[in-house]
Amino acid sequence: MIGTVHKSYVKGNAVWQSYNRGTTIHGVHHLTIANNVMYDTMGHTIFIEDAAETNNVVEYNLLVMTKRSWSGLNTDQTPGSMWITNPNNIIRYNHAAGSDRYGFWYDMQDTAIGPSFSTDICPFGTKLGQFEGNVAHSNGRYGLRVFHGMMPREYPCESVLYDAENPDDPYHNNRPIPGYFIDFTGYKNKRNGAISERTGDLRWIDFKVADNLLAGVEVSILEEVGDDMA
């Protein structure tokens, strides 16, 4: 809960047999987590806690065997190697394998929660920072999961609906912002390589998915904006 930490980092560590996470990002911005190995941990391994955390760089980490925990949050019973509650972070070149449920889980909140609670922070509508070059395999459900949804837009906390009677009012014509998921590899996951629900203008580029039990890529719900589908 110390805010912006441009020169702080967690680098080159081995974390194993942790009973509660590998690393928690809580109320901080611009932190770097890089080149770590985290193995056999319980609950979400890399954990972005309050959905207010932004501009953190998580790169080149190896996350293996994330296990369910019955003593943390409800979501720890279906854990992700990386649990991301605010999209405006940099997640790149990480490798997640053997989680009980998910490799990378974007679980967008409506507002910031916990000690950082604010109705002025709306992760569901916040822009995506960077997601590139990540690999997820041999996970219990999905390699990449975007749920409960993600709809980046100019005014994250305002309605996305188009109002033809107020065409010049930005609060009634809240334009979507594209979000780019780039160069993801997902294989041998026990459901899908990647899945998203309730998404806006998200673009999945250069995905490589193979040998997943149910599907390679599933997009189940697109949000409607006026007469168009975002």
Low-confidence stretches: 225-230
Instruction: Give the CA-based shape.
Output: globular
First and last CA, distance: 35 Å
Strand content: 35-45%
Task: Estimate the helix proportion, in percent.
Answer: under 10%
Supply the number of structural domains.
1
Q: What is the radius of gyration computed over CA atoms, rounded to a whole number of angstroms?
A: 17 Å
Mean pLDDT: 93
Characterize the biggest β-sheet: 7 strands, parallel
Q: How large is the count of helical segments?
A: 0
| Global structural class | mainly beta
Strand order of the largest sheet: 2-6-9-12-15-18-21
- List SSEs in N-to-C order: EEEEEEEEEEEEEEEEEEEEEEEEE
Annotation, overall tally of beta strands: 25
Question: What is the secondary structure topology, with strand pairs?
Answer:
Blueprint: E1 3-4, E2 9-11, E3 14-16, E4 23-25, E5 28-29, E6 32-34, E7 37-42, E8 46-48, E9 57-59, E10 62-67, E11 80-84, E12 90-92, E13 95-97, E14 102-106, E15 130-132, E16 135-137, E17 142-146, E18 179-182, E19 185-187, E20 192-196, E21 202-205, E22 208-210, E23 215-219, E24 224-225, E25 228-229
Parallel strand pairs: 1-5, 2-6, 3-7, 4-8, 6-9, 7-10, 8-11, 9-12, 10-13, 11-14, 12-15, 13-16, 14-17, 15-18, 16-19, 17-20, 18-21, 19-22, 20-23
Antiparallel strand pairs: 24-25
Structure in words:
With 230 residues, the chain is mainly beta. It has one domain (3-229). Helix content is 0%, strand content 39%. The protein has no helices and 25 strands. It has strands spanning 3-4, 9-11, 14-16, 23-25, 28-29, 32-34, 37-42, 46-48, 57-59, 62-67, 80-84, 90-92, 95-97, 102-106, 130-132, 135-137, 142-146, 179-182, 185-187, 192-196, 202-205, 208-210, 215-219, 224-225, 228-229. Strands 2-6-9-12-15-18-21 form a seven-stranded parallel sheet, with no helix packed on it. A hairpin with a 2-residue loop joins strand 24 (224-225) and strand 25. The radius of gyration is 17 Å and the shape is globular. The termini are far apart.
